[in-house]
Design goal:
With 264 residues, the chain is mostly helical. The chain has helices at residues 2-11, 17-39, 54-75, 81-97, 103-108, 117-148, 158-161, 173-206, 214-260. Keywords: Membrane, Transmembrane, Transmembrane helix.
Length: 264
């Protein structure tokens, strides 16, 4: 986590000393929180921490987004063969997805009206790259679940892996998990469309986003692409947990019936 948060400041030239200090402080806090969460025996804030590969795929997805966006932004001032290759891939994907009412078109429209063609191209390239990574990470997650039969492939503690879920809050646990799964999947689908609208509406109060601010560009586009895919994964995972609990209930019910009709 320390490397992920500090990466844009390290890779992108022109970072001020004050910005570097703030980023370092945030990176150390995030690293300490992650260390304490995974070293603790009891549940904390991180979900599915003992149910790999859920968090591993999400972390690799976040790392890839920040890394490739940092390379794209670095290429605007210090071009190399690597930056040109990554920028070309992002540009191709961005133009392919940039059609009316698409998420890429909506995120490009949050730029101010006086944005230059270079700013628009950079935003489209960044959006295309991160959207591709989010789709690939979601595909890898689905393949990993199918290959490992997650979470039934090992012991699964609902209390540890879902610390914010209260089983005794009321109602059937399976129904609540399925409901939360549907809500997360719906939010994951809608967020790429809603986030640009919210940013555009808030621009009248806080000012429009500018692609000349490298740190703002990297983290805005990363959040825009990472949060929906993360919600998709969370919804799918909660649905699988609900299916696992339902299957265990059926097995226990059948076992109890068999014991009840055993000959005396």
């Amino acid at each position: 986590m320390v490397v992920v948060i500090a990466l844009p400041s390290i890779a992108v030239p022109g970072t001020s000393a004050d910005t570097a200090q703030i980023v370092l402080l945030i990176a150390l806090c995030a690293g300490a929180l992650t260390l304490f969460e995974y070293a603790s025996t009891y549940p904390g804030l991180v979900e599915f921490r003992d149910a790999p590969p859920f968090n591993r795929i999400r972390f690799l997805s976040l790392f890839a987004m920040v890394l490739f966006l940092s390379i794209v932004v670095r290429g605007t001032t210090n071009p190399t063969a690597l930056t040109e290759l990554v920028t070309l891939i992002g540009t191709l994907i961005g133009h392919a997805i940039d059609f009316p009412y698409s998420p890429v078109r909506l995120i490009v429209l949050i730029l101010p009206e006086n944005a230059s063609a270079a700013d628009i191209s950079t935003m489209r390239t960044a959006a295309g790259m991160t959207y591709l990574i989010s789709l690939l990470s979601l595909s890898v997650f689905l393949l990993a679940l199918r290959a490992s039969r997650w979470p039934s492939s090992g012991t699964f503690n609902v209390w540890v892996n879902l610390p914010t879920f209260e089983p005794t809050a009321g109602g059937d646990v399976v129904e609540r998990l399925e409901r939360d799964a549907r809500i997360n999947i719906a939010l994951g689908f809608l967020l790429p469309f809603l986030t640009p609208v919210v940013i555009h509406a808030a621009s009248s109060l806080f000012g429009s986003i500018s692609s000349t601010n490298d740190q703002t560009l990297i983290w805005t586009i990363t959040a825009w692409a990472f949060l929906p895919s993360s919600l998709f994964m969370r919804g799918i995972a909660m649905g699988r947990v609900a299916t696992m609990i339902s299957s265990e209930r059926k097995k226990n019910t059948e076992a109890n019936k068999d014991e009840l009709f055993q000959p005396a």
